[in-house]
Design a protein that fits this description.
Layout (H helix, E strand, L loop, with lengths): L2 E5 L3 H12 L4 E5 L3 H18 L5 E4 L10 E4 L15 H16 L6 E4 L4 H12 L6 E3 L2 H16 L6 E2 L2 E3 L5 E3 L5 E2 L2 E2 H4 L2 H12 L1 H9 L6 H15 L4 E10 L5 E12 L2 E5 L6 H16 L5
Parallel strand pairs: 1-2, 1-4, 2-3, 4-5, 5-6
Antiparallel strand pairs: 7-10, 8-9, 10-11, 12-13, 13-14
Helix pairs in contact: 1-2, 1-9, 3-4, 5-7, 5-9
The structure holds adenosine-5-diphosphoribose.
The site of adenosine-5-diphosphoribose has 29 residues, from helix 1 and helix 3.
């Protein structure tokens, strides 16, 4: 059975673990500095497996050496937002956690594909890459696939079309520079930009960008975890099963979209070795301007390590 290590057994990490073991995608080891919480959650999760007659294994530890034979390492360690906070507000606190985690993983496993959730995710993915200097195709930030799922859901509500008929695409930054793309989003095979007027599309775009904050405001403490964990298990599955899956992720650009040395959300194909290739969309001048502006703002926040 393949093995997935999840660093951070909080809301997002433990739900991702649940989805991965219940779907028998891989065995999971949950690692957290709060060892008792990780232990309690893994014991509880272990008990659920006989209900589903699934033979995957789940265990917990605070011992990082358990990452050494993992095929995929998911990083969900870090602080979530509180009401009124932006993802960018988490930068100073979470960068220290990512540095710590990256240094530990660096000496133990350079072969695994790494998926980073900790926010602000595009910047945290860049920090992880800079510290480890791992193969960039194996260092992936997860934000844009979650944003695309949110966009799809909101379109489905607006048009009263089943969500399964919607292929939504969001690129850019998992934060203020998020870019839902109506021209590249299909509803039952039709292009969204042809189905709604500009005003409605702008409303859906704004609702998508602020969806995470809306959820945080309702929760009162902590941030979203059902959709983020669903996005993790889909990404882990694509990697473990070498699906060559088309998705969106924050990856290091090397000349694509006219940009270099930046991690930002773009369409990619995913498989066992991580990013198989980056897909370059034919953006029109307005989309391109917005994408480049988002990248420029992101660069302003880049952290030296
Ligand atoms: N090593 C291991 N685990 C850590 C470390 C560390 N250095 N620092 C913190 N953690 C653990 C905490 O003990 C906690 O159990 O990370 C977990 C975070 O869990 P939650 O507080 O429930 O946060 P969660 O909602 O899961 O979000 C985690 O993912 O989506 C992003 O913005 C979100 O940055 C946040 C991250």
């Amino acid at each position: 059975m393949p093995k997935v290590a999840i660093i951070g057994a909080g809301n997002v990490g433990s739900l991702a673990a649940m989805r991965i073991v219940e779907e028998a995608i891989a065995d999971v080891v949950l690692i957290d500095i709060a060892k008792d919480i990780a232990k309690g959650k893994s014991l509880d999760l272990e008990d659920s497996l006989s209900v589903f007659r699934v033979d995957s294994k789940i265990k917990s530890t605070e011992d990082f050496s358990q990452v050494k034979d993992a095929d995929v390492i998911v990083i969900t360690a870090g602080f979530p937002r509180k009401p009124g906070m932006t993802r960018e507000d988490l930068l100073n606190k979470n960068v220290e956690i990512i540095k710590d985690v990256a240094l530990k993983i660096k000496s133990l496993n350079s072969k695994a594909v790494i998926i980073i959730l900790t926010n602000p995710v595009d910047l945290m993915t860049q920090v992880f890459y800079k510290i480890t200097n791992f193969d960039a195709r194996k260092v992936i930030g997860l934000g844009a696939s979650l944003d695309s799922a949110r966009f799809a859901n909101l379109i489905s509500q607006e048009l009263n079309v089943p969500v399964s008929k919607i292929d939504a695409l969001v690129v850019g930054v998992h934060g203020k520079g998020m870019l839902p793309l109506a021209r590249f989003t299909k509803v039952g095979g039709k292009i969204l930009a042809d189905l709604l007027d500009e005003k409605k599309i702008n409303e859906l775009t704004e609702a998508t960008v602020s969806r995470g904050a809306t959820i945080v405001a309702h929760l009162g403490s902590g941030s979203a975890y059902f959709a983020p964990s669903a996005a993790i298990s889909e990404m882990v599955k694509a990697i473990i099963r070498d699906e060559n899956k088309k998705t969106v992720a924050s990856v290091k650009l090397n000349g694509e979209y006219g940009l270099k040395d930046i991690f930002i959300g773009v369409p990619v194909r995913l498989g066992k070795s991580g990013i198989k290739n980056i897909i370059e969309l034919k953006l029109n001048s307005q989309e391109k301007d917005l994408f480049l502006k988002a990248a420029e703002e992101l660069r302003k926040c880049t952290i030296s390590v």
